[in-house]
Amino acid sequence: MTDSKENADNQQNILQHKKSRS
Questions:
Q1: Cα–Cα distance measured from residue 19 to residue 14, given in angstroms and rounded to the nearest whole number
Q2: CA angle, corner 3, sides to 14 and 15, nearest 5?
């Protein structure tokens, strides 16, 4: 039941990916 935590981790991962791509 760590959907919320995984979701937050996923969002941060995507954010970092976007920053790296910039």
A1: 9
A2: 10
